[in-house]
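Worked example 3 (structure in, sequence out).
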């Protein structure tokens, strides 16, 4: 056994056995250190600008970081774990963001390089733990303390497993006996961080054959919920009108209704073509395409791939991309869509270089292959697109002249330490074009709200389409039965709105509990139980909803002017239990032999998906009893009358 070889490759196993090795306590036992991680939950309490700064630091987006710092973001802002932007950038390994934060002039408000989080981790601890050699070198050149200890007593070297970063951290003064003086005396012996920066990956640089950056989505088409026999021309024309109103109010739910109703086939090309052909809301489309939903990513790439960007410069590419959709006002959304634009631009130019040869530009800005030769990276081009939009906003927003960015300021914003990331050869012509003209496609602002005012006051979203509308209460706990499916067995009705909030895909906006999210508020409002009990029936009332009857479709909305959060197809539904005294009626599925069928309530989700909820019946109580006659008359127009009973009116199938 004495000659056995250990896992380390050495033969002195007996010596290893004599070491007093104690198992390290799992970090979760005492609470794992944040280690530079940023989450939406940890940002609570920070203002919007500082939240954006930490988010962009965690993404490694240096252009956004520099713009936010210029307009008042606090470089020392911390989340509830004490994590700063420098910690987050070190975790990401973004040398450009780290350098942007280290370049801040030394003032009372500047960010100390040895700032510690709640667990005592400095940025150097985070860089060492994640093996970020180039970032660690930049920190050490800025006099980061390699001997600093966390609250658990660890120095950066003890957290590091990367051999190259370890060798950097092991530099000691005794290794340089001829060096005297303070910490700055060792600076020249440290390797240059820029020289150690990771070389751009193939994905970032692109592949000459155009095979690295590619768009190959995995997409499984969904089938419409309305039976094929019911989708005649009249019904599809009705759904077309409803779909356009829904889309212009909220694109995600509008797209869900488009496909669920069978108005459009569930194909990316079909959905993009439908939006273009009907000239639907550019604001809503821009907002949806920039979301982080899986379908939004597919449609975003489908839309951008349909535009030819070959031989375009930065300004031309931006104007082409945003000539049909509006720029999103949220910076995270803007970041996502400009990244996709950079990917598509690079792929098209790499393919044109191989198949068509180099193309020359006649515009004053660098374009095509000349521009690509200067940036040589998707990430650099992405930041240039983003920064150009911000420059245009800075020039034409209502700001004092002292806050306008000058040419030299803009050039300096694309510098990391002593390295000019983007040359002034690229930046100067863009700056001149932005300064001389106001480009409408590059305007950032809140979307224009759908016109909802008339001489008589607020009108309905489905004015002219719905045969009857009004406020109603959804009566009965069965209206909330879908929560058992959504919340995976939870029956706590006070958490209904939270459970529904997580039906949607997990993105920053969708993860916010539905009661706090403006996008998903309609579901929360409509589904939240209200403690109101009828003494005679014992039934519980839910919150009020706005209901619209459009042909055989019953649409449920938060109010008159917002997109419906749910709909029900009434083709096989029966109207029962009409109670004129209480302005109440119920909708039930017909009896099929010995089996009792159930109603299907289709929840339209903000990410363009839907969720089918099974209900035993839906009981509606109108808030105005005078409107009951109108509702019954409209149901009668749809119904095939069978007998004289007013308690059962079967609705005919379209």
């Amino acid at each position: 056994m004495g000659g056995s070889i250990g896992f380390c490759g050495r033969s002195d196993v007996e010596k290893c056995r004599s070491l007093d090795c104690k198992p390290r306590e799992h970090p979760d036992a005492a609470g794992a250190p944040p280690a530079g991680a940023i989450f939406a939950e940890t940002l609570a309490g920070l203002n919007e600008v500082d939240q954006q700064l930490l988010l962009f630091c965690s993404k490694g987006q240096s252009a956004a970081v520099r713009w936010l710092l210029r307009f008042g973001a606090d470089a020392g802002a911390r989340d509830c774990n004490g994590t700063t932007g420098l910690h987050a950038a070190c975790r990401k390994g973004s040398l450009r963001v780290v350098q942007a934060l280290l370049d801040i002039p030394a003032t009372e408000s500047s960010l100390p390089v040895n700032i510690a989080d709640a667990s005592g981790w400095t940025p150097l601890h985070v860089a060492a733990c994640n093996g970020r050699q180039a970032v660690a070198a930049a920190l050490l050149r800025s006099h980061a303390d390699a001997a600093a200890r966390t609250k658990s007593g660890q120095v950066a070297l003890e957290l590091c497993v990367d051999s190259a970063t370890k060798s950097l951290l092991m530099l000691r003064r005794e290794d340089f006996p001829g060096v005297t003086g303070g910490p700055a005396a060792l600076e020249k012996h440290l390797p240059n961080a820029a020289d150690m920066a990771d070389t751009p990956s193939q994905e970032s640089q692109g592949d000459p054959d155009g095979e690295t950056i590619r768009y190959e989505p995995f997409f499984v088409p969904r089938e419409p919920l309305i039976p094929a026999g019911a989708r005649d021309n009249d019904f599809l024309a009705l759904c077309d009108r409803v779909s356009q109103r829904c889309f212009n109010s909220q694109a995600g739910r509008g797209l869900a209704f488009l496909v669920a109703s069978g108005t459009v086939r569930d194909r990316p090309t079909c959905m993009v073509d439908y939006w273009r052909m009907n000239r639907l809301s550019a604001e809503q489309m821009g907002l949806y395409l920039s979301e982080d939903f899986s379908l939004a990513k597919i449609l975003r790439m489908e839309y951008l791939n349909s535009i030819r960007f070959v031989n375009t410069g930065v300004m031309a590419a931006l104007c082409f991309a945003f000539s049909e959709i509006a720029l999103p006002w949220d910076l995270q959304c803007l970041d996502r869509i400009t990244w996709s634009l950079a990917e598509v631009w690079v792929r098209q130019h790499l393919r044109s270089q191989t198949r068509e040869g180099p193309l020359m530009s006649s515009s004053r800005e660098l374009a095509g292959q000349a521009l690509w030769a200067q940036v040589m990276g998707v990430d650099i081009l992405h930041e240039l697109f983003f920064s150009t939009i911000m420059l245009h906003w800075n020039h034409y927003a209502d700001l004092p002249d002292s806050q306008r960015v000058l040419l030299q300021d803009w050039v300096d914003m694309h510098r990391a330490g002593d390295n000019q990331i983007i040359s002034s050869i690229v930046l100067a012509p863009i700056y001149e074009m932005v300064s001389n003209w106001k480009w409408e496609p590059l305007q950032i602002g809140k979307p224009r709200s759908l016109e909802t005012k008339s001489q008589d006051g607020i009108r309905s979203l489905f004015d002219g389409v719905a045969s009857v509308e009004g406020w109603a209460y959804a009566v009965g706990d069965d209206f909330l039965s879908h929560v058992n499916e959504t919340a995976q067995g939870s029956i706590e009705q006070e958490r209904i709105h939270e459970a529904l909030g997580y039906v949607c895909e997990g993105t920053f906006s969708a993860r916010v509990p539905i009661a706090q999210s403006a996008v998903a508020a309609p579901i929360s409002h409509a589904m939240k139980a209200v403690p109101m009990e009828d003494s005679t029936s014992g039934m519980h009332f839910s919150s009020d909803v706005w209901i619209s009857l459009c042909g055989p479709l019953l649409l449920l909305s938060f109010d008159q002017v917002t997109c419906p959060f749910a709909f029900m197809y009434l083709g096989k539904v029966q109207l029962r239990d009409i109670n004129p005294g209480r302005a109440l009626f119920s909708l039930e599925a017909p009896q099929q032999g010995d089996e009792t069928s159930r109603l299907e309530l289709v929840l339209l989700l903000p990410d363009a998906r839907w969720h089918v909820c099974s209900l035993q019946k839906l009981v509606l109580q109108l808030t105005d009893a005078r409107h009951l006659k109108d509702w019954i008359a409209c149901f009668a127009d749809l119904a095939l009358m069978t007998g004289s009973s007013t308690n059962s009116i079967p609705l005919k199938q379209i």
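Notes: The radius of gyration is 31 Å. Residues 281-442 form a domain with the Arf Nucleotide-binding Site Opener; domain 2 fold (CATH 1.10.1000.11).
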